[in-house]
């Protein structure tokens, strides 16, 4: 099966019903994408499919053939995407396990809504659980990333 | 150090990608000035200065989000005067030298890392600095006293040499017998808000957690465990499981049947195809509703172990002006860290190699050695980042490590055992179900003069290696902490606190803030009931009772002041307060809540004052307090595990609900400037939030909610 992941064409030998999550982690060794629940409840496995946030743990790999998959590893070459910059500046992470998914959800939100309110952020990120409770700093960081994006565009 | 631990040190330096590091090791036997510690630190193990100027700090505890990766490095850097941008941190391997300075084994827990390592990590930093200075002095043929250090350089005012340039020369020197640590007023790094050192790799996906361990030949295994606690395998048929693509082996282990496959998905499909008959045993009749009823009955019975006693509580109750009684209960809870439990094991010859996110290295080394049949020093443990711990990765019974060693042994291949989320939620080692029954007699001002308190709940420590240290005369300290030592009870002339510790097949464990999860809820709710019953303001009433506890009083008053206590909250909202000491720190919180038309409780704001003694990293403290409150709020608003017919009724985040972004209040953290003995910060702010919210809900609705999670009628 041919996949397009982080700008490269990749060939994998996987059954069609294997979730994209496990293809990425176990076959392509992209372990930045995380397993947390396996039923689209926690958002740790969030990746982009043609730029939109999806839960890779419930996305069968057969459904992504010919589409662009982006994981946290493919977000920026050097970790300097404005959302990543904001995350560092606001000192968001604690254990860090959920943060790939949080960041991918935040990037997708900002692509659709460049200046989200707190309420917009709450809705867009309600599907991403953080047990360390970094939510308050995530909110701040999304606002910060929105401001950084604006600056870049000027 | 054992030969193994030296090898492991070398290995970890290679893994770090630093190339060949000719490390500058501070020799042993050097010691700090001032009162000598029990044993001098072995700085070889804690800091390395490389010729390129990189300073590597080896972390003897596990980073699970709490920020010690940064905090302990700050201690070294403060004394070493090194360039902060050249600091690297690695988890230390499992070795005796990394034993917890207070607890004697390598472990992380009890909110103890920062205070317990404050001397040791500063001391090794100071030792390293002293040797670099003397190396420079030798080169310049001058008196070391004339030299100073800053930002990774030694200077005499005119010339300067980098630490990297001096590393080899310093290595050859004898250590000083004494080093002097800086005074607090001279700190440049400690006490300053400092961003995390582990941030970059945690935001680009490169951070390695246990579940990310991969190497040639490694297989993934899932274990089918009994559907009820204490159950065992009667028989199984693996035919269909073995027919699943990718499944290589199916082996029986003490905890169930393991399916070993090339990858997770194959192992999961294989496990789903297993046919197993179980001997369920007595666990099959477990029912939390019946359990709670039986706890209520026990709380009313005489007897139980006496945790504290003064005067005649019964007589004083009988003669008190007014009596109040209340029962509070809390359910079983799973820790549910975001990274599901996992453990990788490779057995080769007489060696056992383990990679796992753990809080309990020493204990697991011993357990693994026994199962693998090798000496403990032949068991290596590499600790990657922990995707949350909250106590679940500190199991005295070493469950997830021991079963992985069993699987590797039975399967004859290296395996990574991964738990599904369902395995985690239903796998036990919960915060125990607890019930408190409190009877209080008060005087004319509503001040307690008699206090009878009966606590019922499983002992966390019974049956573990810790029992002999922490369970005395039938009292598990973890069951009564927060009541027995409550500052509210000290002045009460007649009091009796008793404990019943029923046994159950349900395995229990410490959960962030441990006993305080329920004792703070019971104590701070009861005190609030007394205040309302006396018609007094909850803050003013507490302040009166706490007049002999200045730290509590200060935290209480600061939180109240910052929250605008006394001024009207926004329309439709009310405030509640709680103050509680745990792990040596005092936390006061004011919660501001409203109630939706569907009766769900919204927490809008939490104002928090913290006295944890010396504050090492205020930015990290703020994060821990926010996180602790969020963790506690899950239990206040949502989380509950129930059992019926021996089965846990919840299985994943859709029915074991936890706090999500829309539930997150705005949290304001005020760190009190304090010279008090250092306390912990990873857990203490979890404890009071339940009562602060319940008290606010009462103020708003006049409904006193005495069960967690809080549910309005």
By DSSP (H or I, 4+ residues per run), the number of helices of chain A equals 5
What characterizes the major β-sheet of chain A? 5 strands, mixed
Count of beta strands of chain A: 5
Basic shape of chain B: globular
Straight-line distance between termini of chain B: 61 Å
Which geometry of chain A do the CA atoms define?
Answer: globular
How many β strands of chain B by DSSP? Answer: 28
Question: Whole-Å distance between the termini of chain A?
Answer: 42 Å
Strand order of the largest sheet of chain A: 2-1-5-3-4
Q: Quick one: which chains have the greatest interface?
A: A-B, 60 and 62 residues
Largest sheet of chain B: 7 strands, mixed
Number of helices of chain B: 19
pLDDT < 50 runs, ≥5 residues of chain B: 1-39
Output the radius of gyration of chain A. 15 Å
Low-confidence stretches of chain A: none
String of helices and strands of chain A: EEHEEEHHHH
Percent helix range of chain A: 25-40%
Kindly describe this structure.
The complex is a heterodimer of chains A (154) and B (713). In chain A, β1 and β2 form a beta hairpin. The termini of chain A are far apart. The longest helix of chain A is centred in the C-terminal third of the chain and has 19 residues. With 154 residues, chain A is an alpha+beta fold. Chain A is globular, with a radius of gyration of 15 Å. Chain B is 30% helix and 22% strand. Chain B has a seven-stranded mixed sheet, with helices on both faces. Chain B has a five-stranded mixed sheet with strand order 12-22-19-18-13, with helices on both faces. Chain B has a four-stranded mixed sheet with strand order 23-24-25-28. In chain B, α2 links the parallel β2 and β3. In chain B, α2 runs parallel beside α3, α15 runs parallel beside α19 and α18 crosses α19. The longest helix of chain B is centred in the N-terminal third of the chain and has 28 residues. The N and C termini of chain B lie far apart (61 Å). At the A-B interface, α1, α2, α3, α4 and α5 of A face α5 and α18 of B.
